[in-house]
Amino acid sequence: MSAKALTVAAAKEAKIELIETGRGTQALHDVVVAMRAARRSGSASTKTKATVNLSGAKPWRQKGTGRARAGYKSSPVWRGGGVVFGPHPRDYSKKTSKTLRRLAFQKALSERIKAGDVLTIAKFEVGELKTKSFVALVKKQTDARKVLVLSDSFDENTYKSARNVKPVQLATAADVNAEQLLAFDKILVTPAALEHLAERTSK
Question: What global pTM score does this model have?
Answer without folding.
Answer: 0.85
